[in-house]
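Morning!

This is the sequence you dropped in the shared folder:
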Amino acid sequence: MSDTTLQMDLAVQRVLDPEGKLVGAMPDLDDGQLEALFRRLVQTRTFDETSLRLQRTGRIPAYYACAGMEAHVAIPAALEDRDWVFTAYREQGVRLGRGVPEVNELALWRGMPYAIWDPLEFRITPLNATIGTHIPQTTGYGYAARMLGKDEVALAMFGDGATSEGDFHEAVNCAGVFGVPTVFVIQNNQWAISTFQGIAKGGSGTFAARGHGFGIPSLRVDGNDYLAVYAVAKWAIERARRNLGPTLVEYVTYRAGGHSTSDDPAAYRPKEEGDAWPLGDPVLRLKTHLIQRGTWSEERHVQAEAEVM
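The structure's back. Tokens below.
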């Protein structure tokens, strides 16, 4: 697919349908790689559930659960070790995928990020709750890396609400003007705190369409389809590495729980909506596909959950 085609095609890209059946091109991953990646997905779900329980018992002051959005763990699998990731706060799986130990990630949520682990070791920034401020940093790092002749890609992850911040527009504009080797990942989980994503989107048909105004190729992806998330991330990262400029990716996903542990989503969305998993369970979808391939089973899944706890 050419850049010109991408600028016009904003259909949601998909590899697996909600029932785990293959409906798109399979990424270049063998069974062993698929199993390792799925185990990371299971680890993220288990870590998220455990952290939420710890917060409810007073051992973590606050927590932003990522249930429903765990397919973002595919992104570090598509990166090289030398690349940098700039995160917001709901990217637990991405940090774990970059190699941050669980105990260090837990310490991060207890408010001790710099005393516990060094971002330089894992090439990923700690939790950043100031909406959008890390997006210009991503553009700046990508620009500096290219000026210094480093073969590195900078990738930013943020929510749909951050696209209303001036930081987003300034960062994407500069990246487009200077052809910076960056990838901008919008995690459209349908809700920016207590406001529906349509408010932040304004008159734009999609969040991805905003990239076109800056001359940047844009894609929309099923964010609950792990294989689609991986395939698109791999493509955009390789494109940036070949010095073809930035890419804007909108991952269409869903936040199953509240914005944070201090939030009650029942106050602003239908009470049954979260239970219905409107876009499907990303863990269940890949699990079903692997079982259909004959490389996984219910018994192995139970064992994997026990191993990552």
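Headline: Confidence is low (pLDDT under 50) at residues 1-8.

More detail when I'm at my desk.
O.
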